[in-house]
Automatic annotation (TrEMBL):
InterPro entries, per the entry: AAA+_ATPase, ABC_transporter-like_ATP-bd, ABC_transporter-like_CS, MacB-like_ATP-bd, P-loop_NTPase
The protein's name in its UniProt record: ABC-type lipoprotein export system, ATPase component
Coiled-coil blocks: none
Gene3D superfamilies registered for this protein in UniProt: P-loop containing nucleotide triphosphate hydrolases
Keywords: ATP-binding, Lipoprotein, Nucleotide-binding, Translocase, Transport
Residue ranges of domain ABC transporter in the record: 3-220
Amino acid sequence: MLLQLKNVFKWVNSGGQRVFLLKDINLTVEEGEFISVMGPSGSGKSTLLNVIGMLDSFDEGEYRFLDEPVHTLKEKHRANLYKQYIGFVFQSYHLLDDLTVQENLEMPLLYKKVGSSERKSLVADTLDRFNIVGKKDLFPAQLSGGQQQLVGVARALISSPKLVLADEPTGNLNSKQGEEIMELFKQLNNEGVTIIQVTHSEKNATYGSRIINLLDGRKI
Ligand SMILES: Nc1ncnc2c1ncn2[C@@H]1O[C@H](COP(=O)(O)OP(=O)(O)OP(=O)(O)O)[C@@H](O)[C@H]1O
């Protein structure tokens, strides 16, 4: 088992009322699964992904990741855990504007304390694999939306995460680029990487092996 959520609730207080973002979520994910999270806008998909990625806290329930009780860990320990094992692909790319493509790719390796020469070689391999060698010295603002998304995906994968979390990973890509990303995910998954993607696309969901449907913060 890679991770397990037990009776997880998340809410915000608004005008003295609790507004639930996640309601009684129970979810077990085995290593090697490829899961699609679907549901209407506002149903809690991104919130669930952020909770799984430890970027968001929750108010009630338990979360175990690789047998670590995430809900009781101190912030620093939790950050080490996700930096070590999780790669994120965001809908809006979250690239660092002041860093070049090459430097953006290097960030997760710095987090993981990978040595300088190995970093250089991993960055070179990744630039090559994603066909973006020619872009290495450009800044994000000098790239098209699709190219930025590609760099975002490359950055998520460079440190060989155990789990990839992707929020609408093809949202800003044309259909050919989108298919390339999905094929890449499929290949990674075949190599044993666990993938959880949020998607509105039935077609993208067919790449996965299980669908989780959300409605008003609840699994249905
Ligand atoms: N910090 C917050 N405070 C108040 N409401 C929030 C907060 N974060 C999220 N919400 C609300 O919680 C609901 C779920 O949001 P979430 O972004 O998880 O939905 P989603 O299913 O990913 O939607 P979309 O498909 O539009 O991206 C939304 O109604 C959103 O407005």
